[in-house]
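sorry for the late reply, my laptop died twice this morning and i had to redo everyting from scratch. anyway the thing you sent over, i finally got around to it. pasting the sequence first so we're on the same page, its 227 residues, then the predicted structure underneath. double check i copied it right bc i was rushing
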Amino acid sequence: MVRWAVARGDLDHSPIDGLRGPAISKPRTRVLTDNEIKFVWHKLYELRSDVGRVVRFCLVTGQRLGEVVGLTPNELDLPNAVWNIPAERSKNGHPHTVPLTPIALSIIDECRDERRSSLLGSDGNPDGLFGVSRNVVSDIIWRYGQPLRGTSHVQRWHAHDLRRTALTGMARLGISPIVIANVANHRSVSKAGVTLGTYVQYDYSDEKRIALSRWAERLQTIISNAS
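ok and here's the structure:
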């Protein structure tokens, strides 16, 4: 608009010449270690079971915190062990299906038992399965979820690091980048270019289930055996 005003002669020069844009933040690279995963899995659950279940589900599924806390029972297809995230709740505006492993299903079962006992719903969307808000989860993580506090190796972590940890864990297991991108609903990778975006109309559902199952097996080993 300013350039247009200068071209018209309404301004002698651009008043924003020489101004610098805001600094671009570097993307985070934090990934939890196996010992940190074990700490997070157990200690946050002991502190607050509702927050602990959200954290566990984020780790198991590799999905975003906002999408997890917003999960409602009508998004679940339990006979087929699938979680269907609608387009209006997906960050990129596209619907997304997440295969559910036995660990994920056990977390869902526990949430449903809690709902029946009327113990959920006070801190979040009353229709949400987990019954706790994103802000509450983030606040608990900020205040109590630091596994190495008091040591010389303190490194704070955030809720989104759970997703990065899960996807990185899949990569370490040899899962292909295109499958990981489909698990994460990263369309910039899974639908990039003419070939993938136009000609490959495949949802990788079987591959996603295999990837999440392999990660769940690895996660089970971590939370049981890491020292």
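The radius of gyration is 21 Å.
thats about all i looked at so far, will dig more tmrw
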